[in-house]
Amino acid sequence: MRYVLIVTFVLAAAATAAADPFYLRYDPDEGRFPEQEGWGRYWDDPEDKLVRSAENGVFRLDTRGSYSIFDLYEAVSPAFALGASEELRVRWEMETLQTDQWSHRSDVCVAIANESHAFVQLFLAPSYVSEDELPGGEPERLYWFEPAARHAYEFITLDMETYALYVDGALAFGGVFHDYAWREVPRVAFGDAIIGRTSLSEWEYVEVEVLPEPATRVLVLASGIALIASYRSHGIRGQHMYFLDGCRAAGYSAGMARLACSRVLRPRPPGRMPKATEK
Ligand SMILES: [Ca+2]
Ligand SMILES: [Ca+2]
């Protein structure tokens, strides 16, 4: 198996305080990089092969030159520890143009971690978005869309424990925060999250917002999230993930989320499933 590390959440972490309204937007309309616009950067490029640009309103991240690259842009704020009646929304518009042909998994991601270090990591491929981390298997929280096109995403959570993901305005899937995120929390991150995979992605913007009151649509969503939460008492099938420092994360609560999300998964189109092999 090819050496792969998921580096979104590595190393130890700080705690949180009460929530506040929060808004952070990255849009490279003025040719600036995320770290120049209030985002932290967590990255490595030991072979000096990373190529970035911020031109024509688009942030282009090209990590195809080396399997050693990861490059994440992070927002950390106590505001993400939501108070009662608050909600977190993460919106972004982007296109993943290329991932490794041999791999079923994209290294392009958006990830959200709560103050208890549980997290959701969304992997963005040219033709789908998925949330599962299933070595050698196909993702179960999966949503197909038109390839070779830019898509608009919206991640919504009312409690930093359950979430719903919309793509181009349609509900893609929902699930629960799980596992253990290392490093500082609560946090929102985007970029290339995996050592051992390569990709090319273009980001139109990324926006993180904490709203004081749920919007109308979210009130409807809340009933669905309550349904998801009701599955939490079910058994969890353990599964391990390995991180940059070699530490094993806590048992993976995928089984719980699969139960919760099965009803919102779209049927798989024939012949379009990525290969479930790893090298
Ligand atoms: Ca833009
Ligand atoms: Ca990578």
Verbal overview:
- Strand 8 (108-113) and strand 9 (119-124) form a beta hairpin.
- The model is unreliable at 10-19, 216-220 and 226-279 (pLDDT under 50).
- The chain has one domain (5-264): Sandwich (Jelly Rolls).
- It is 8% helix and 36% strand.
- It contains two helices and 17 strands.
- The relative contact order is 0.24.
- Helix 1 (216-230) packs across helix 2.
- It is globular.
- Strands 2, 4, 5, 7, 12, 13, 14 and 17 form an eight-stranded antiparallel sheet that branches. The protein has a seven-stranded antiparallel sheet with strand order 3-6-15-8-9-10-11, with no helix packed on it. A two-stranded antiparallel sheet has the order 1-16.
- With 279 residues, the chain is mostly beta strands.
- One calcium ion binds at residues 63, 69-70, 107, 192, 194-195, 197-198.
Keywords summarizing the entry:
single chain; 279 residues; mainly beta; Jelly Rolls; seven-stranded antiparallel β-sheet; 17 strands; binds calcium ion
